[in-house]
């Protein structure tokens, strides 16, 4: 990953309380897993930002190296890598996601 791509990802993760690297946009997810994440965040009613990795091949590959996680979407909350769609669904179901998000937004 280039230093420029790493800096770009660093900035996105640090500047946004909830950052989702996904296929498509929050208005038009381009895969089911990305759509799951958008639906969960919308259900929680929390502000979140997204980056469409399909529109930026360097970020698409770079985010996988950045997190050492092979799949998209990837969710960061308060600068911390949370995981992908499967982990977010589990956290939503066991209520830990709401708590994590509330703590992040309050800080």
TrEMBL record:
Highest rank taxon of the organism: Bacteria
Keyword Iron in annotation: yes
Keywords: 2Fe-2S, Iron, Iron-sulfur, Metal-binding, Redox-active center
Name used for this protein in its record: Glutaredoxin
Family annotation (Pfam families): Glutaredoxin
Annotated binding of [2Fe-2S] cluster, by residue: 31
InterPro entries: Glutaredoxin, GRX_PICOT-like, Monothiol_GRX, Monothiol_GRX-rel, Thioredoxin-like_sf
Family annotation (CDD domains): GRX_PICOT_like
Domain called Glutaredoxin: residue spans: 18-82
Family indicated by similarity: Belongs to the glutaredoxin family. Monothiol subfamily.
GO molecular function: 2 iron, 2 sulfur cluster binding; disulfide oxidoreductase activity; metal ion binding
NCBIfam families: Grx4 family monothiol glutaredoxin
Natural source organism: Leptolyngbya foveolarum
Keyword flag Glycosyltransferase: no
